[in-house]
Amino acid sequence: MVDEAKLHDFIGKMLGDLGGAASVAMVRMGDKLGLYKALQAAGPMTCSALALRAGVHERYLREWLSHQAASGYLAYDPIALTFALPPEQAMVFAVEDSPVYMMGGFDLMAAMLENQPKVQAAFTTGGGVAWGDHAGCMFCAVARFFRPGYHSNLIPSWLPSLDGVVAKLERGAKVADIGCGHGWSTVLMAKAFPNSEFIGFDFHAGSIEDSRAHAWDHGVSANTRFEVAAAKEITERDFDLVTSFDCLHDMGDPAGAAAHVRRLLKPDGTWMIAEPMAGDRLEDNLNPVGRLFYAGSTMICVPTSLSQEVGAALGAQAGEAKLREVIGGAGFSSVRRAAETPFNMILEARP
After folding, report:
1. Long-range contact set of residues 212-221: C-beta below 8 Å, sequence gap at least 24
2. Which of 104, 250, 308, 331 could form a disulfide bond with 145, CB atoms 3.0-4.6 angstroms apart?
3. What does CATH list as the number for 103-350?
């Protein structure tokens, strides 16, 4: 027997979800066309004024602005007929160094949708989708999605939460950033600690090319370099610090990678592992963050792991207990949660 009240509530939820899905293309166009930043810079504007400033066709813009107002993304003044980007929305749509800048998330949603046919096919075979074979620029979207969190937390709070690490970095340490992607984490650390040497490793050659470009653009080429290598292929040794940002769960053999990291470290070294925030039970993760991460895990993380040797497929919501099992099993005597945000947990592992 259908409960009419529950049905209406669920239809309302579905309308909200469909509205959010429809907004992905709209928000990405606003970003690409510079509309949010134009509104942020100039303040409230009429449609015609914004069209002139941004160099876009007014008729298209009128529909876009109307959608943005209906979504609550822009504020509309029906008397002055102006649209404005409130400061809170600006932090999400226009301020790239904001801790809640989410444009990368919208890019990621588009890439996931484009990737559907490949992952859907893998559902029937149990096979994987290699990182470099994902549709669109998945790695670009992932890098843009995680950068705000790293920018806001890595230097101010995550590294200081580790025992004695900042002092080593200030004096001069040797650091490996494994699974560095586009190198934003490596570049941030290299800028903050010019006396230390940073080496970024990633198995995706295209990402390493972008990492080198970012290092050059941000003036840290003198104390950084980037190499194409999977975690277990790294031959250098005697690192004071190894970092892994949002990538351990993507690896085919995370246990093997952890054991190799143990061998890379000096006896008094530290491994910092940043992983998506998750509880150890499904019921702990039935929330908005878990909803996003389970989708990302289905479309990106699990297929990527299953495409590699072993194919452990931990998933983005593996949880701290499972991660501790993997890390502790590799010979690390101490594993503790050093810091956390709504999106990440930071684990410190010591030999």
Report:
1. 212/183, 214/182, 214/183, 214/184, 214/187, 215/183, 215/186, 215/187, 215/190, 218/187, 218/191, 219/191, 220/187, 220/190, 220/191, 220/194
2. 104
3. 3.40.50.150
